[in-house]
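Backbone shape codes:
***
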Amino acid sequence: MLSSPWARFYSNSCCLCCHVRTGTIILGVWYLIINSVVLLILLSALTDPDQYHLTSAELGGEFEFMDDANMCIATAISLLMILICAMATYGAYKQHAAWIIPFFCYQIFDFALNTLVAISVLVYPSTIQDYLRQLPNNFPYKEEIMSVNPTCLIVIILLFISIILAFKGYLISCVWNCYRYINGRNNSDVLVYITTNDTAVLLPPYDDPANGAAKDPPPPYVSA
């Protein structure tokens, strides 16, 4: 029997020997907590702007950090992420595969962004030094980081990004396996239901023998 090449990557278990449903629920709750904390920080910053406001003099640039427009955009993104994570958690718990799709799409988008960052670091290594120079002077360990050999710094950053990408890819596979598991289970339930109904429909009613006997006989055969 021929199977799909992607079938070899399918598994019902994930990290810590948990089921993919349990892993997806834990992952959704974890993202939900993180985005809720970020939303609380953003709301507190909106209520007290002076606490999180950094001027261009403090950053050493020609822009301001976290102004009102950026705060509103970040708040909207946090609300959207909370909704997506809640949908994924509910979908995995109630076994609704369609509710997991937005969270899976977010994971793919996040993985693509991190991949582009790794490619940009590999293609344009000088951007790291430029980025470090743009950091404020009071940034922690700025001088120590800039004193590292540029080649070693690029290797360390690429290694760090590769580990993050591998971890994110594993989480994507867990969510995808959860989607396949729920979708396959729902489809099997539908097939069982249809098969049961078809069997019931195909069974002849009990009145058929009596009705057949009551029918008029066919006309007699007349020879030519």
User: Anything to note?
Assistant: The chain has nine helices and no strands. The first helix runs from residue 20 to 47. The CA atoms of residues 84 and 152 lie 38 Å apart.
